[in-house]
Amino acid sequence: MAVNKYKVAVGFMVAGVLTVVFGTVLTFVGPLIIDDQIVKNTVIDPKNSVSYTMWKDIPVPFYMSVYFFNVLNPKEILKGEKPMVEQRGPYVYRKRCQKDNVTFHPNNTVSYKEYRRYYFEPSMSAGNESDIITIPNMLVLGAAVMMENLPFAVRLMISTTFKTFKEGPFLTKTVEELMWGYDSKLVEFLNKYLPGTLPSTGKFGLFADFNNSNTGLFTIFTGQDDIRKVHKVDSWNGLTELNYWRTPQSNMINGTAGQMWPPFMTKETTLPFYSPDACRSMELVYQRPGEMRGIPLYRYVAPKTLFANGTDYAPNEGFCPCRQSGILNVSSCRHNSPVFISHPHFFNADPVLLDTVLGLSPNEEEHGLFIDIHPQTGVPLNVSIRLQLNLYMKRVSGITETGKISEVVMPMIWFEESGYIDGPIVDTFHTNLVVLPAVMEYMQYGFIALGLATIVIAALVRHRLKVTPVLVPPPNHHKQPPFLLLFPFLI
């Protein structure tokens, strides 16, 4: 009987060693299995119907919230006083994105055009599209700055043209008209006799070119041959570099199209992306870790140098001619119109910009842009891109519509494009990328602990059996009762 127990103990020791080995192997193999699954589900491949459909027709609801800077003192501005504005909004639009003309190429790239449409959401808005707003008239004040170096006689003629078409320095229109366009006799005249002067051939509106439009022909890497290149832009509209800016570095098309990034990110990883609307590549930097419904994330934000001028940040010299830090001159890709983009309320900008306009109050929580991203997959979980559109305006002699306007970078609107993963997608994400890896981790350490415990107990039993002598019962001279034969320890 003792020999059998000894063999059993040895058997348990072997089983324990095998369990420890299995648990140890699992610690190395488990992450590799998970990473392999991430790679398979990150590659842009029509054979993977779930991830491909998620990339092609983004199921996450995106919204654009628009805030207008309603001008309170237009008459005083024409006399040279500081502009006074009040923020109106948000006016919220649901954004529907869909990729079309999807074409795969032999060099592991895919081309597509992404079309976007906007639908007004009254229940999410702080007003209606029928609200009346007053903003600077870009057609007049923007053109005045563009024409300031023309001969005086030409400027007088331009001013006469504005009066003929009853175009003043400020517009008072409904939100819908300002957003999506309004009929203008001046626009009709320019499109007929000076085609190409304006970016739009139809109605004139701040977002007239956005609705029912596409962001250009993107060609990006599928990641089929190298997962580190997935989603990165190979070309845009056939271009591998831009021609808007003054230096090769500024004209580079870097990063992705701004929707997803390559997986396996670290805190040193940055988020570069190309934005056709901003006419340039931008790059966000890691700020802090976080969590969204149990899913770990990294928050990325815009560095203070994003819109810094060339004096404060030398690499941005290529985006000049610059004014103060905090605003980007995009006139070179906006028909030379004196338009600047910035963070809302001139957040992270030169205080001089803030001092020239009354009614602004920047803060990071409301006006800083960020992307919360799952570092293991490169999929954004929560996005908030906030930008402001500004018009540089000043007095131009000969164009009487400009009055005595002081030189100012005037905020007109700011908008936030936001979206976050919710619903069944979050549950799938949480299960596959949080629960299953955690279960695997607990299993591997559980196997190791169970194996070690089995080895220790089996070794103790084996040792005890080895040192304990086998007791031989004395000769049975007397007949014992039957029950004592069953329980010899009672003898």
UniProtKB/TrEMBL annotation:
Broad class of the protein's primary localization: membrane
GO molecular function, one term: scavenger receptor activity
Membrane topology category: Multi-pass membrane protein
InterPro entries recorded: CD36/SCARB1/SNMP1, CD36_fam
GO biological process: cholesterol efflux; cholesterol import; plasma lipoprotein particle clearance; recognition of apoptotic cell; regulation of developmental pigmentation; regulation of fertilization
Entry's transmembrane regions: 12-34, 442-461
GO cellular component, one term: caveola
Statement: the UniProt record of this protein carries the keyword Transmembrane: yes
Keywords of this entry: Cell membrane, Disulfide bond, Glycoprotein, Membrane, Receptor, Transmembrane, Transmembrane helix
Compartments, record wording: Cell membrane; Membrane, Caveola
Stated family: Belongs to the CD36 family.
Listed name of the protein: Scavenger receptor class B member 1
Biological classification of the source: Eukaryota, Metazoa, Chordata, Craniata, Vertebrata
